[in-house]
């Protein structure tokens, strides 16, 4: 019910169909994330308060599902990147992305700052065969620059842009957009989808109340 106030059913089905094409493993990860977000959302938006409006647990699930697969830009809101950029505290520095991400893309414009900071990396950076303007670390699984004990990157100040935005991954060339990665292992992503869910829930509730005036 609530989701229908935010997005046309046909549009949602079209978006959801693209998600279904990602395969069963990705869907399992999504469902795992959505369950984790549901636990937290029910604490922030207790159903007892909204039962008089006919809002049920299924409404929360639908809102979370929408928050997971769609950017708030669709509703005139901020992008995933804008939201994440405002909340660096969400990152627990667990290092999961550093240990499991490969390849780590390095744009040609990022090489000089990295080598200025750490000249001995010259032999560690090689051409990326798939993207001519990008390079990569010769060995990056796990990334040797992640200090597990300190939970910090050894080249943090000059780390590549892809590291700064991860676990949001930039896709596409003509119309680039971010997609969520590591959704099944990253607390950062739980915070992101939770934040989006709260925003969407409150907006849907506002529209519901306005429809009764």
Question: Could you say which structural class the secondary elements and strand pairing correspond to?
Answer: mainly alpha
User: Count of DSSP helices?
Assistant: 9
- Work out the radius of gyration: 20 Å
The overall number of domains is 2
Helix content: 40-55%
Principal-axes geometry comes out as elongated
- Distance between the amino and carboxyl termini: 18 Å
The largest sheet has its strands arranged as: 1-3-2
Give start-end ranges of low-pLDDT stretches. Answer: none
Q: Tell me the quaternary state.
A: single chain
Topology as a string of helices (H) and strands (E):
HHHHHHEHEEEEHEEH
What is the residue-averaged pLDDT?
85
Q: Characterize the main sheet.
A: 3 strands, antiparallel
Q: What is the strand tally?
A: 7
Q: What share of residues are in beta strands?
A: 5-15%
